[in-house]
Design goal:
Layout: H1 16-19, H2 23-31, H3 40-53, H4 58-63, H5 65-71, H6 77-80, H7 87-91, H8 100-118, H9 123-128, E1 136-137, H10 151-163, H11 170-179, E2 183-184
Parallel strand pairs: 1-2
GO molecular function: DNA-3-methyladenine glycosylase activity; metal ion binding
InterPro entries: Adenine_glyco (IPR005019), DNA-3mA_glycosylase (IPR052891), DNA_glycosylase (IPR011257)
GO biological process, one term: base-excision repair
Amino acid sequence: MENKFRPQAAPIKRCNWAESADQLMQAYHDYEWGTPCHNDQHLFELLSLEIMQAGLSWQTILNKRAAFRQALANFDFYQVQAMAPKLPQLLANPKIVRNQAKLTAIINNAKIAAQINKSGQTFNNYLWQMIDYQPIVHHYQTAAEVPATDPTAIKISQTLKKAGFKFTGPVVVYSFMQAAGLVNDHQADCFLAAK
């Protein structure tokens, strides 16, 4: 029998963008967004998804994530780098975003990520060294305060472009940094905000 006198657990407070979102978006917020990621393949996935998201809603990309994983060899960049011949097949796949420029950029970026690893440096190390291996923590009070980009993202964008990465402008890079936990932009009243 339920104890009606037992206090109910207080609902958790999330960032505004996740507060009224569906369960998929809330799970992404609660378990992934802003959590430092150090797995090469997952970092490549997050970068690729942010490229795909440019000009679209994150909800759209999240809904297609499983299809992207299936189409792009679970974002194994060693496999994705060889997918140029499969581009027509990818462009015919109605389950993913069929944007030739973005898909071509992801295939290109897979080659660059693989080259980084073959040079003896992990993709993880390559990215995290750019922020001295420490997440950048912000304490924004509202979603309106969170910028679309910042000087660090601009610098990283320039470094990525110099290395040969495509579709990695400062806005895409900043979104990637948030997703991969290089930046913690959870609002100050969010249960995941850095204390």
